[in-house]
Write a structure and sequence with these properties.
This protein is mainly beta. It has 3 domains: about 160 residues, Immunoglobulins (Immunoglobulin-like), CATH 2.60.40; about 150 residues, Immunoglobulins (Immunoglobulin-like, Sandwich), CATH 2.60.40.10; about 290 residues, no CATH class. It is about 5% helix and about 60% strand. It has 3 helices and 32 strands. Strands 4, 26, 27, 28, 29, 30, 31 and 32 form an 8-stranded antiparallel beta sheet that branches. Strands 10, 12, 13, 16, 18 and 19 form a 6-stranded mixed beta sheet that branches. Strands 20-21-22-23-24-25 form a 6-stranded antiparallel beta sheet, with no helix packed on it. Strand 22 and strand 23 form a beta hairpin.
């Protein structure tokens, strides 16, 4: 039917043009035309797939011109069912927009790359091109800048196009694509070692990448299990809203966001920890197998479930270090001590990262330590450190780093403090002093804005340059000292950063920008520690050492949304006799969400708390 109607139309148009010389090359003085579009042999394509496109351009009567080229995908079924009445094409997608610069007269071959949109229905498409879409150049023949019913050579359907076949999308299908941990290894305390630790802990943190196809979004539930002795055992997720651990993580997918980010914070309970430890062998490398399963909570659940499960693994270690150590491994400077009562070391570390490094990711590394030397030259050392690193588009940046190290010994040797702060890879200040007694308070704050990375994205057909960074405040308020007692107390650091972005395009008739409300990190790390030496006290009549350490943290990481948008004044496409052609103007809006997420991690907890005294 389609070829028959094209032949009729071609005959009619040739009759009308029989006495007209407009199409004769003898009369044409100027013309711009695309003569061929091809992709090479392709299999059925997946959405969001990049495809190479090859096309040929003829320039006549123009020298070194700049000209725009736009590419569209038109569903072939719509053209097969068209008749002689003009009708708008519904299933048409703009997939490319570029500018050719300084093109000389003659025939030229070019290539570009387009991305198959996520919004296609799927099936058979024609990839067509339009050159000089805004009629910036006056030509003798304008009708061959695109497929047209008014250009005789195109009347039988022989306009330039390439056939593309796209997989038909599912009507209702959730998918788990990938799982990434925010740590290099899982390091656990041995069972029943809860001295000084908090019930709120984070064993495994990271994120899942997921996708949805269809138009019936609803709620889903995700569970996580670990493999122990050949059996899958359930774990628990931290729920920031309920401030409790729960057996499953509920997640609502976002319409149009085909790269869903689902953050998780997993804890292993005591019974499960004991089972894992029983099969642990420190002499050989071991990994913990983790399985994530997504379940559709809708009444009419999805029928495709084999892509709802993803398995991964992470290296596994148990921390079995003793609470005693030699002072040489910890002292800031070389000091001589006699060996008597065991030295005491109390320490705790927290090192996790959150987010997708190719978009936005933030890592936190916290540590606090109290070291006591009870005999010889009695003394102690308090140290604390906090580091915040961020990735923007795979670029690593140290946002903030601060360290404090204070020590005191009866002899007066190695008694003093040192502190250093780094902001955006630059040392903000250094402070160091060693004396027989001291007290020092710091209270500093900064408000900073910094561009940290640049990248390029394509939003619909529009290429866009983006720069991203952080804005916010940071600082600390800490008092340290020694006068018969070594102490440190206060907020070792506080950071509050939000991500921002700026974007630009180099195409006419296009507007584009950033959509951003994103909290990157809000973190307060507090440290309170003391160590003293007393001949007598109200609770102890014998000479003794008393000490205490408490590390608290309040952390909220990555919440909000960050994306790009573009609006183009494009072409409205119509059809007649199976031929697509421009029939007006139409504004198109495109959105690319890089992040839409609730808080990936939101928790206030005590990393470590311990106090005691030892008789000398």
């Amino acid at each position: 039917m389609r070829h028959f109607t094209r032949a009729m139309l071609a005959g009619a148009m040739l009759t009308l043009l029989s006495g007209c010389q407009l199409g004769s090359n003898d009369e044409v003085q100027s013309n711009i035309a695309i003569t061929k579009v091809s992709t090479g042999p392709l299999e059925t394509l997946e959405p969001n797939t990049a495809v190479k496109v090859y096309y040929e351009v003829d320039i006549l009567g123009f020298k070194d011109i700049d000209v725009d080229v736009h590419f569209y995908m038109v569903h072939a079924a719509e053209l097969d069912t068209s008749n002689g009445e003009e009708a708008e094409i519904e299933e048409v997608h703009k997939v490319g927009a570029l500018e050719l610069t300084q093109v000389s007269e003659g025939s030229h071959s070019f290539e570009t790359e387009i991305t198959i949109p996520d919004t296609l229905l799927g099936g058979h498409y024609h990839l067509i091109a339009q050159i000089d879409p805004h009629d910036d150049h006056v030509e003798d023949v304008e009708e061959d800048n695109h497929p047209s019913v008014d250009h005789a050579p195109f009347a039988d359907g022989e306009f330039p196009f390439a056939d593309v076949h796209v997989r038909v999308l599912e009507s209702h299908d959730y998918k788990l694509l990938d799982a990434q941990f925010g740590q290099q290894a899982l390091i656990l305390d041995v069972p029943d070692n809860t001295d000084g630790t908090s019930d709120h802990h984070s064993d495994l943190v990271g994120y899942l990448s997921a996708d949805y196809e269809g138009s019936n979004l609803g709620s889903t539930a995700i569970t996580a299990e670990v493999l122990v002795n050949g059996n899958w055992q359930a774990t628990h997720f931290w729920n920031a809203e309920n401030t409790a651990y729960e057996a499953q993580l509920t997640h609502n997918f976002t319409a149009g966001l085909h790269d869903e980010h689902i953050g998780f914070d997993i804890a292993l309970d005591d019974a499960l920890l004991s089972q894992i430890y029983q099969g642990y062998d420190a002499t050989v490398g071991q990994s913990l197998q983790v399985r994530f399963t997504l379940t559709d909570l809708a009444q009419n659940a999805e029928t495709i479930t084999d892509n709802n499960v993803i398995e991964t693994e992470i290296p596994l270690y148990f921390f079995t270090g003793e609470s005693t150590d030699t002072e040489q491994s910890l002292a800031k400077r070389d000091a001589q001590y006699s060996v008597g009562l065991a030295n005491i070391k109390l320490e705790k570390e927290f090192d996790k990262s959150y987010g997708n490094k190719s978009k936005f990711s933030v890592g936190v590394d916290l540590s606090g330590q109290l070291f006591i030397v009870p005999t010889g030259d009695p003394g102690g050392r308090i140290a604390g450190e906090g580091v915040v690193e961020a990735y923007f588009f795979n670029a690593q940046n140290t946002l903030f780093s601060i360290s404090y190290d204070g020590s005191a010994y009866v002899s007066g040797q190695n008694t003093g403090y040192a502190s250093e702060m780094i902001i955006f890879n630059n040392v903000a200040f250094e402070d160091e002093k060693y004396t027989t007694k001291y007290e020092k308070s710091w209270e500093k704050s900064w408000e900073e804005e910094k561009v940290l990375a640049k990248a390029r994205f394509t939003i619909g057909p529009v290429p866009m340059s983006v720069e991203a960074g952080v804005t916010g405040n940071l600082g600390f308020e800490l008092t340290v000292g020694y006068n018969a007692e070594l102490y440190a107390e206060g907020d070792l650091f506080h950071v509050d950063f939000g991500a921002f972005g700026r974007g630009g395009v180099n195409l006419g008739l296009v507007s584009a920008g950033i959509q951003a409300i994103l909290t990157l990190i809000d973190n307060t790390f507090a440290m309170e520690s003391n160590a003293g030496f007393a001949l007598v006290s109200t609770s102890n009549k014998a000479p003794h050492i008393y000490y205490g350490i408490e590390l608290k943290n309040d952390l909220d990481v990555i919440s909000g949304k960050f994306g790009l948008y573009a609006e183009t004044i494009g072409v409205k496409w119509c059809k007649k006799w199976g031929i697509p052609y421009p029939c007006g103007k139409k504004t198109h809006r495109y959105d690319l969400w890089l992040y839409q997420t609730p808080s990936v991690y939101n928790k206030s907890w005590t990393l470590y708390s311990k106090e005691d005294e030892i008789e000398l």
